[in-house]
Automatic annotation (TrEMBL), chains A, B:
It holds the Pfam family TetR_C_24. The keyword rRNA-binding does not apply. This is TetR family transcriptional regulator. Residues 36-96 form the HTH tetR-type domain. Keywords: DNA-binding. PROSITE patterns: HTH_TETR_2. Residues 10-30 have a biased composition (Acidic residues). InterPro entries: Homeodomain-like_sf, HTH-type_TetR-like_transc_reg, HTH_TetR, KstR2_TetR_C, Tet_transcr_reg_TetR-rel_C_sf. GO terms for molecular function: DNA-binding transcription factor activity; transcription cis-regulatory region binding. Gene3D superfamilies: Tetracycline Repressor, domain 2 (1.10.357.10).
Amino acid sequence: MSAVERDPEGSDEVVDESAGEAAGEPDDAAWAEVTPDAARRLLVAAVDAFAERGYHATTTRDIAGRAGMSPAALYIHYKTKEELLHRISRIGHDRALKIMRDAADSGGTAAERLDRAVRSFVGWHALRHTTARVVQYELDALGPEHRAEIIELRRGTDAAVREMISDGVRDGEFEVPDIPGTTLAVISLCIDVARWFKVGGARTPEEIGALYAGLVLRMVGAGEK
Amino acid sequence: MSAVERDPEGSDEVVDESAGEAAGEPDDAAWAEVTPDAARRLLVAAVDAFAERGYHATTTRDIAGRAGMSPAALYIHYKTKEELLHRISRIGHDRALKIMRDAADSGGTAAERLDRAVRSFVGWHALRHTTARVVQYELDALGPEHRAEIIELRRGTDAAVREMISDGVRDGEFEVPDIPGTTLAVISLCIDVARWFKVGGARTPEEIGALYAGLVLRMVGAGEK
DNA sequence: CCCGACACTGAGCAAGCGCTTAGCGTGCGG
DNA sequence: CCGCACGCTAAGCGCTTGCTCAGTGTCGGG
């Protein structure tokens, strides 16, 4: 049982998010695209610190300390603390959007695609809850132009979900009176996983993904499976 | 059409939350229990500031300024900034718990009670989204003992929802495979309203409450109405 | 007309913040 | 073996933070 659904006609090069460390916490491999090494260590430290205490409560000294460096080292790789948050937010949202789009563009019925979407989107929010928490809840700490950029990415996620629901309604699979409202509720439900998920909890990310996929299919009235 | 469901056998003295200002924002009347007047003005100012910028990004000077007072005046009525947050959090959670319990203890079928619960709980999170945002998302800013106290209140909310769902399953009204998981998802869905709700949005708090109540009834498989 | 109680202010303290700068060690091209 | 570019640190600058404290104006009782 693989964690994240492997879609048949997905992208060419897929970094399997669930491989490597099964525990979920030390998601260093997920930031492979960040170079050089010291910059990545700082970024991972920042993700942990931001998720734990929030952006404003985190000091640059704390971030540098977690990365095993002096406070000044941070400013060799990042112009400001806000730039660090932006890099994290950008990469995280790119990843979340890709997960959603891959599911939306995969084959099968609308119900199958929505199931895959919720399953992997929720799975990511649980497995990478540290990243997801920063990405989803520290948006207001970004500067205006950076925030606008991220909001644009979120619109893409929104559109993908609305698309799947609309398709299902068109094909008679779903029965939903308020498509924009239900879209909002579905995404809202998925995102909030990042707030409450704890590593020692009763459920694995995959289990939560499966549970939520079922609940969402009920929300859209997918009675006939 | 009244905003918050008026349960027939509810409590004796009910402060109608939706009365007074229809706009929703200046919820000064909701804090009538806070005295003296200056203490309440400071608390309302703190709610606005915390909701807007977050607890850590808010300065005591900002709070005092919004209340039209000097920074030092804050410390006549509150020992620390954290005590202010605690008072807000305590009152807000008391209110949220009461809303949930009133619905759970009201008469009728499990579906009717769950409908009322989600409708009013969500309605409150939308109408009082400023308060709700602080109450639901600034929990980590509280000191350990204050946080523990609030978490205890949340357990009560959780229990009320689980109770209603369990009753529905017992009576054959609902069909849910995972009661604790579904309980969690329902509360999660409701709480996240406070994150995304904006006053200028397309829907009123009552409309969102109605939409969400319908979605939740689908989640628990309440097919036979 | 005085007096103390009271709610509040102006000024400011110690600590901690984001960020800068001068300098140091190390490794690599010549 | 030199020299310099590079990644990093120690020290610290200017500012803001939560919070304090010596007053100040006001007001009711005697």
